Amino acid sequence: MRLKRMTRRNSGNMILELTPLIDVVFLLLIFFMVATTFEDLSGIKIDLPQSTIKEVREVKEIQILIDENSELYLNYRETTKSKKSMKVTLENLKEELGEKLLNSSEKNVIITADKKLDYGFIVEIMTIAKEAGASSLDIDTAVAK
Questions:
Q1: Residue 91 DSSP one-character state
Q2: What InterPro entries does this protein map onto (predicted)?
Q3: What sign results for the dihedral spanned by CA atoms 43, 49, 50, 54?
């Protein structure tokens, strides 16, 4: 079987249509905007204490958020991509955190607390986290300008 080579009948200038190309780029832009997950603290306003240390650590699995009204929120990842947040109380923090730590490969807990909170309350949260099975605790701070 012999293949026939196609030849162009008109040897004039070829015009490239940009409309389909623009459509494809626009659709890709929309896809990536929708597919991208944004780091969100679920609308919780927390005024972090400042530090001169500039080590940045990404929240990998479990984070305890405490706002200025001492309300507790637990951020965690069920899979590698989906991040969930739930409101917890001081009474059920140990059970919820223990359950999340059992399913977690990394037993690190990051505590993000408002700077106006009482030091004793933060220590109480740290004690509950250790009792729930956390191997290490990190305190989140804002970088001083």
A1: T
A2: ExbD
A3: negative
Report the candidate in 89, 59, 58 with the shortest Cα–Cα distance to residue 73: 89
Report the C-alpha gap between 27 and 21 in whole angstroms.
10
For 50-143, CATH gives: 3.30.420
Residue where the block lists tokens 């250790």: 130
CB-CB contact of 97 with 132 (8 Å): yes
Distance CA 145, CA 136 (A): 28
Give the C-alpha separation, 11 to 107, whole Å: 68
Give Cβ neighbours of residue 50 (< 8 Å, ≥ 6 apart): 141, 142, 143, 144
Q: How far apart are CA 27 and CA 30, in angstroms?
A: 5
Work out the burial of residue 58: count CB atoms within 10 Å of its CB; fewer than 13 is exposed, 13-18 middle, 19 or more buried: exposed
How many residues in the chain?
145
Digit-coded pLDDT (tens) for 6-31:
666 666 677 778 888 899 999 999 88
